[in-house]
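From the pipeline queue, job 12 of 40. The input is one protein chain; the requested action is below.

Action: predict structure.
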Amino acid sequence: MKTVLRNPLCLLMLVVAGFAQDTHAGYRSLRVDAGKVIGEIRSFQGLNGPPSPVMAGLPNLVEQYKELRINQVRTHDFMGPTEIDSKFVLGNGALTWLIPDDAQRAGVVNAGNASIIFPDWGADPEKPGSYNFASTDKVIAAIHASGAEVYYRIGRSWGANINPPDDFDKFASVVKHIAMHYNQGWANGFHYGIRYWEFWNEPEGFWSGTPEQFYSLYEKTARTLKSVDPTLKIGGDAKAFPSDDGGYREGFIDYCASHQLPLDFYSWHTYANGSGDAYDAVRLAKEIRGVLDRHGFPHAESILSEWNLSADFTESEKAELQGEHNAAYIGAALSYFQDTSIDHAHFYRGDAAWMGLFGLDGKSFKTAYAFQAMGKMLDTPQRLAVEGTDTFGFAALAGRSGDGNTVQIMISNYAIPANYKPDLMPMPPELQKAAPPMPDMSKVKFLPLRTDIVYRDNRGYNLTISNLPWGKTAFRMKRYRISKTQNLDLTEEGSEKDGALNLSNPLAPDTVELIVLTRG
């Protein structure tokens, strides 16, 4: 087929051929029965990072978030807004690692410290005048304007202080009044109906106190939030290393069970730095679900509140994080999430800051196009079974619209590079002296690597979609692609009326394809 078939002769030839092409050896055989619905396509279009600029010079991305169909925004690493008592210092080694430019970092430090919600720890938390809501009001309003739900992370950003609060009761009271401000209109506030309140972020590195102190602060905060509204969903602890048991997994969960504390969800993170495997989250989700079930919380949600191919925010990793390889990883992972116990997921991150989906000009990286393709799949929410996929990176998701006029399939071909090496991302030695202590990685338990990954028939696909809902009525096909040279570009279109689609195309690794069939 020629690229983007538009002229009448091409269309005539396409009708005669009926999209039928010779099957190819080394191509994957994919089969979809469009007459058989197996469930609903779920949205995992959550992001970290606000649509409003987190630093000076970044673009406003409200319209871009709308286009990607972002359903939740986690308020983590907003660098000041939404945070209670964070303190930013210019010479902090972790912050310097994240933002090497002195002038830019100084701007973040100044703006961050000026944006903290409760700036005077000696103030009365019962009085509206004790609060500095202005900056947080703006970012929450931007999330609301994008159509996304706010997922409120209680805690501190990267590069801020990690010490426990001086007064746990006061901290809990401040959190209560924040919920009142954004959900009940307190202090000239709002009625946003924020449901999810996540306690802390990665206590392995963002908390210098003991696990017991952590449990105590969670207990006070959770009980106080529930006193505001018992329907709020409270949970934590956004664990950095979810396979690592101990104080911030079993210890935390068991404390909640023995003290009859609310744990409406348990949150955790995964980055594929050590494996490059797009299926890691599926295996971790099964592990976390088992832990929650065995320890008395069978109804607690499991939330993946950070994920990405890599956690490396440094300049050397930008091409990898923004390119077609990560786009294919995202497409495969989002497809795999459909068959897990994960209830919500938040990619890190969405905006134009480090590891984001967009450039400083607001234009999409290839990773944003992967989310855009999945967002389009939500227009055909009746999920259809796809035969022929695997768990090694060749993934597909198919759906049809409620009115039966559209059928779509998204195919992602991701592969771990042959020369792949784990990215351990060590902090530069010159910054370690001025940085908070990092976890002792030699004592951390990680998800074991899979040893059975074998790539087969992943040079393309032979696709059959049968039992189209409109029968023999004419339909149109459009094919879009994300690759090294394409950004969800329209690469082929035509028409047919035989009630089925047979299509064969090359699809090299690091490619995502969206095929759209519409009646008439």
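Job complete. The chain is about 30% helix and 25% strand.
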